[in-house]
Specification:
By secondary structure, this protein is of the alpha+beta class. It has three domains: about 5-100, GAF domain (Beta-Lactamase), CATH 3.30.450.40; about 130-205, Signal transduction histidine kinase, dimerisation/phosphotransfer (DHp) domain (Helix Hairpins); about 220-360, Histidine kinase-like ATPase, C-terminal domain (Heat Shock Protein 90). The protein is about 45% helix and about 20% strand. The longest helix has about 70 residues, at about 105-170. It is elongated, with a radius of gyration of 36 Å. Keywords: ATP-binding, Kinase, Nucleotide-binding, Phosphoprotein, Transferase, Two-component regulatory system. This is histidine kinase.
Length: about 350
């Protein structure tokens, strides 16, 4: 066949997508023919294959306007049907001379190529949809993370004002009722500050190069951990905390980040354990590794929740009083990674234990 084309055929257009022209028919990719002058327009309506070996001897097409207009004697056109059933166009071919086209081999080959073209078009469409969806998801994620960063930054100033005012009131007033209210304000400020820190770290980690750390050689980790415990017990004075520290070997870490990580773990242990339970904290260091374990009795973490426990905005089953952003464990895990270590969890009906392991140097 001297000329072949993949044609896009709609209700008002016939446009070439790809062309093989050995007879100088004159069409290039993007060229158009008057729709009404083509047999493809008829195929668009009935979706059937049209094959002509010799126009002059064909009863149906001997006097058809299309062969007379374009001067061909042999013709084949196969509809291209997309996966969703939509008619795309045709794979067609013509030649000025007669040809033996009405046989299983030729018609089968054209049908196969038409199916391959339809498959390719479907794949391209799916890729385009996927890319569009991915772009929207990226834009949504970027917007969310930027919003978190801005919100966290803007919340700090009024929160600092509230915290400072509470401290000033505590010094000025000695009435029991006022002191109770001041304690509530201070506790709420402490919790809000932790949420803001997590939001900012999450946004920084996702928008930048991850959570940054500044190591201090021979960091006094026992003092770092004790300070966090004292802060937590000031908020929850009735909670029982048992410690077992053996950190005789020096450790090079970012003390503030370890305190932040430990605060998240200890806060979770207090939140998710019975009020009369004892929380056990063990810490040890060797020449090679520092380990910290926070264990508490309570309900076992469900397997489904375990799989996504360290993912952002993910939390286990919570009571109304246990609401949060679901960022604490994600931030803690990222801090562990920034130190070249990891954070793991084990949970059963007896207790849940979060374990931090990082290199000592």
């Amino acid at each position: 066949m001297g000329f072949a084309a993949v044609a896009r055929v709609t209700s008002d257009q016939w446009i070439t997508c790809a062309v093989l022209d050995k007879i100088n028919f004159g069409l290039l990719p993007g060229s158009e023919l008057n729709l009404e002058t083509t047999i493809c327009n008829e195929i668009r309506e009935h979706h059937k294959v049209v094959v002509i070996d010799h126009v002059a001897e064909d009863e149906e097409f001997a006097n058809h306007h299309t062969p007379l207009l374009y001067g061909f004697q042999s013709y084949i056109s196969v509809p291209i049907i997309l996966k969703n059933g939509e008619f795309f166009g045709t794979l067609c071919a013509i030649d000025p001379s007669p040809a033996n086209l009405k046989n299983t081999s030729v018609v089968g080959m054209f049908k196969m190529f038409a199916d391959l073209i339809a498959f390719h078009l479907d794949a391209l469409q799916q890729i385009a949809i996927s890319e569009q969806t991915l772009q929207k998801e990226r834009e949504t994620a970027d917007f969310r993370e930027q919003f978190i960063a801005i919100l966290g930054h803007d919340l700090r100033n009024p929160l600092n004002a509230v915290s400072s005012s509470a401290q000033l009131l505590a010094r000025l007033s000695h009435e029991n009722r006022a002191q109770r209210l001041i304690t509530i304000i201070k506790d709420s400020s402490f919790r809000m500050n932790g949420l803001i820190e997590n939001m900012l770290d999450f946004a920084s980690g996702r928008l930048g190069d991850g959570i940054s750390i500044t190591r201090t050689p021979n960091e006094d980790l026992e003092q770092v951990l004790i300070q966090v415990i004292e802060e937590m017990q000031a908020i929850s004075p009735t909670r029982k905390i048992k410690i077992d520290f053996n950190t005789v070997h020096p450790v090079s870490v970012d003390g503030k980040r370890i305190a932040q990580l430990f605060s998240n773990l200890l806060g979770n242990a207090i939140t998710y354990s019975p009020a009369d339970a004892t929380i056990e904290i063990t810490a040890s260091s060797t020449e090679d590794e520092f380990n910290l374990c926070v264990a508490n009795p309570g309900k076992a973490i469900p397997p489904a929740a375990m799989e996504r426990l360290f993912q952002p905005f993910s939390r286990g089953e919570v009571e109304p009083s246990q609401k949060g952003l679901g960022l604490g464990l994600y931030i803690a895990s990222e801090i562990a990674k920034a130190h070249g270590g990891g954070l793991t969890v084990s949970s059963n009906v007896e207790k849940t234990c979060f374990t931090l392991s990082i290199p000592s140097k």
